[in-house]
Amino acid sequence: MTEPGGSIPAGPADPEGTRRSRFSEAAFSAEYATGDQEQSRVSARRNIVARLAIIALGTVVTLAGLAMFVLPGPGIVVVLVGLGILAQEVSWAERLLTYAKRKAQVDKVKRQPLWVRGVLVAFSVGAIGASVVYVLRR
Question: What is the rounded distance in angstroms from the CA atom of residue 75 to the CA atom of residue 80?
């Protein structure tokens, strides 16, 4: 039985091993309910670990990007990369990434003539190169 807040109570009636096994079974049942049907418990465990690793990596990259808003670094780019990683497993990140792409008007750039896109790429590469030269000469 769970508490009103939704957490699993701890105490003498629910020892740590039982609580851990309930969490484990919940993770396995959620994994079996999503995506392809796993052939064994070992493959389900591997998928759970992979999902947790992707979520952890995406979270770290996104938080690093957020920190770069006040620290030196390409904050917006890193946040978008982190959201792209998170979007593989988390639906809210996918929605936020779609919104950011729409606001950035990425589709408008893709519809430009080839020479315009070439100029944009050349300008971007030049700006990055100038930044690297500036940092190395400093």
Answer: 9
